[in-house]
Amino acid sequence: MNEDQLRALLNEIKEGRLEPEEALERLKVFPYEDLGFVKIDHHRSLRKGFPEVIFGQGKTLEQVVRITCHLAQSGSTVLVTRTSEEVYRETVRHLPEAEYNPLARTIVVRRGEIKPTGGLVAVLSAGTADLPVAEEAAVTAEVMGNEVERIYDVGIAGMHRLLGQLINIRSADVIIVVAGMEGALASVVAGLVESPVIAVPTSIGYGASFGGLAALLAMLNSCASGVGVVNIDNGFGAAALATAITRLKKN
Asked: Residue 194 burial (CB < 10 Å; 0-12/13-18/19+)?
């Protein structure tokens, strides 16, 4: 959306030819910015509550940096997932405020205001090997306006570690459980809490884990109630779903 289009829209409202509610509906479907190799949706936050997120994997360094700069220039907070330190080094040359989390492989450029959800999201990891996915979830949930409690390395091989954190876990509005191997942690947690549990299977494990398929199937077949499951290694997706839930606190 350019300035002329926005000015025309505002004039219609001022002159009483357009109701504010109808103007909002128009804004939700306004044209995107076409850069040739990508079409940037600058109004994603109007529809979804958060700007468009850049999935870095499979994109060239130049593509990621250019999209990031265009989103930032529009005043949007930018989140890049599945990216590298090399991409960050080039990004920070253009956007000095860019932040890189090497464990999560995320870049964040904070622009504008993201309204707090008022919600608390607990992110649990079964083991240290699951931390990259857990951190992707934690960073995403934070950037989307949630308070985040990280509770790591509480897998069921040592149940006392999990039970020792139960008070903190139960205080969360939504719980994200990240686990590989057999993926049993999500079921155990869901049997101990009343909050919704979002299970994230990871590709961590020996051969018979089949790159996370064993954990995925275990989580889908959980006998505990209140468990939702996202795709293998999808920490971002889990945090986005958690945020959709915590935003309901305001309604």
From this structure: exposed
What is the pLDDT, as a whole number, of residue 4? 62
Structural domain span for residue 211: 120-250
Is the pLDDT at 18 greater than 60? The verdict is yes
d(CA 199, CA 139): 17
| Residues forming a β-bridge with 148 | 121
240 and 166 in a common domain: yes
Over residues 35-62, the mean pLDDT reads: 86
Helix, strand, or coil here: 11?
A: helix
- Tell me how far apart the alpha carbons of residues 181 and 115 are, in angstroms, rounded to a whole number: 37
Point out which residues pair with 200 in neighbouring strands: 178
Q: How far, in Å, are 79, 136, 192, 215, 224 from residue 151 at the CA level? A: 23, 14, 15, 20, 21
Last residue of a domain, one of 87, 109, 131: 109
pLDDT digits (tens, 9 = 90+) for 129-179: 999 999 999 999 999 999 999 999 998 888 899 989 999 999 999 999 999
Interatomic CA distance for residues 181 and 184, integer angstroms: 8
Q: How many domains does the chain have?
A: 2
Among residues 209, 230, 154, which one has the least CA distance to residue 185?
154
Rounded to 5°, angle at Cα 59 from 78 and 99: 30
Q: Rounded CA gap, 184 and 69, in Å? A: 41
Determine the pLDDT at residue 26: 67
Rounded average pLDDT over 209-219: 94
Higher pLDDT, 29 or 229: 229
User: What global pTM score does this model have?
Assistant: 0.86
Q: Which residue matches tokens 């790591």?
A: 152
